Amino acid sequence: MARSFTQLSLQERRTIARLQEQKIRQSEIARHLGRDRATICREIRRNYWHDRELPEATGYWAIAANEMARDRRRRVGKLYRCDDLRMSVINRLKEGWSPEQIAGRLKVEPGMTVRLCHETIYRYVYSPEGQHQRLAQYLPERRRRRRPWYGRKPQSPVFPPDRSIRHRPELINQRQQFGHWEADLMIFRREHGEANVATVIERKSRFTLLFCNNDRQSRPIMDRLIKEFSPLPLPARQSLTFDRGFEFVSWRRLVDGMGTTAWFCDPSAPWQKGSVENMNRRVRRYLPRETVILSLPRTYLRQLCDRINGTPRKCLSYRTPAEAFRDEMLNLKFTNPPPVSPCNPDQPV
């Protein structure tokens, strides 16, 4: 079985420099580090410091070797080496393509011999060159800094284990039953205040509600959900799925207030409520993070709801969410099914 290769670390280079100064043979250095002898030989040959002005400074130095190796890896990168490829990637980023879409398109374009991994594009975007060009603002998430995997700490255990999404009935998971919703908050730039927008979507019909909140306090948000969902019959509001954000810690008010069941994603796994996460990305087209929510007209969110719920969806056989929601309400023998959102989305808490 082939061994996987990893770059030499700074600590290993310090060990090489110390043993090299002690006149230890390269084979012994390799055995000490658990590396191949060729790796040590190549490392010393490629990163040996030559100083013509100060011959006494010539030698293998760990810090200098580490910087030389880092600069060499940057220079040989495809996006640093190929100007045409780099400009093509940047132009597509500006057109709204994601790095994964760019990398995937390069594989199927006729006559294209260059292959590129989406991780390479992300690294270039967040490199000093990419930061100087402000390429991160063209990414779907528009993050100024790259968020590390598993970087978020789990929230405190205020959500009981029996309310975990892992225990949610399979009937809900397969979207076979009407009346099960997912909810989330869309957050905006902090300098514009604490106002946010709650997104609530029905899993089967994809019917979406949007309403504004003045802050992220949990109790007002839950009271607003109770106010907007109470007019619906119980079969149309059977459950709500949240992530484990602190804005949902008052979930028991929702259960006690209208008898709706609450489910919660696993810690640091908001992707498990994929319907509302996908809807948030759709809504971001109209409400980017730079939006000042409280400056919008009072009817803007209602009009946005109408636009989203009036757009045909492939998963609904190209019916609109409003039509699917209306049909489900008629099946429940609801006498006056609302043609649009049952809430008043433009009124803040």
Automatic annotation (TrEMBL):
Organism lineage: Bacteria, Pseudomonadati, Pseudomonadota, Alphaproteobacteria, Hyphomicrobiales
GO CC terms in record: cytosol
Gene3D superfamilies: Ribonuclease H-like superfamily/Ribonuclease H
Residue ranges of domain Integrase catalytic in the record: 165-329
Classification via PANTHER family: TRANSPOSASE, TRANSPOSASE INSI FOR INSERTION SEQUENCE ELEMENT IS30A-RELATED
InterPro entries assigned: Integrase_cat-core, IS30-like_HTH, RNaseH-like_sf, RNaseH_sf, Transposase-Integrase, Transposase_IS30-like
Regions annotated as coiled coil: none
Native organism: Pelagibacterium luteolum
Molecular function, one GO term: nucleic acid binding
Keyword entries, A-Z: DNA recombination
Biological process according to GO: DNA integration; DNA recombination; transposition
Protein name as catalogued: Transposase, IS30 family
